[in-house]
Amino acid sequence: MKKTILLVTLALVLLMLAGCAPGINELANVPSRTGVVSGFWRGLWNGAIAPVTFIISLFDKNVQIYDVHNTGAWYNFGFFLGITALFGGGAGGARARRRRD
Q1: What is the rounded CA–CA span in Å between residue 8 and residue 2?
Q2: CA 84, CA 43: separation in Å to the nearest integer?
């Protein structure tokens, strides 16, 4: 009985996680109205300013955190580097933990 409940719970959790998987960005490599396709450097900048952009986006529906008109993997990589560099990356977190210990 316990195994059955565990399997059903696991199946439900997996289905819920599968529902959160992102879809294909149909606007990737498609220029915006201004003719811009964002690449690595724009992704780096957007990642760096993401916390400020998020706060602004709560009050202005025209402001978005992530540019959907991007080059795909390179934009994502730049965005990831920008947001992790802002918070000190992995090394910054490890250094802070060492100071607390």
Answers
A1: 10
A2: 12
Residue 96 lies in a domain: yes
pLDDT in tens, 31-83: 888 888 889 999 999 999 999 999 999 998 888 888 888 888 999 999 999 99
67: amino acid identity, one letter: D
The pTM assigned to this predicted structure is: 0.65
Q: Can you give the residue range of the structural domain that contains 45?
A: 34-101
* Within a domain: 4: no
Q: At what angle do helices 50-59 and 73-86 cross, to 10 degrees?
A: 100
Q: How far apart are the C-alpha atoms of 32 and 70, rounded to whole Å?
A: 9
Burial of 16 (0-12, 13-18, 19+ CB in 10 A): exposed
Cα distance between residue 28 and residue 66, in whole Å: 12
Per-residue pLDDT reduced to its tens digit, 83-94: 998 777 666 656
Contact in structure between 76 and 39 (CB atoms under 8 Å): no
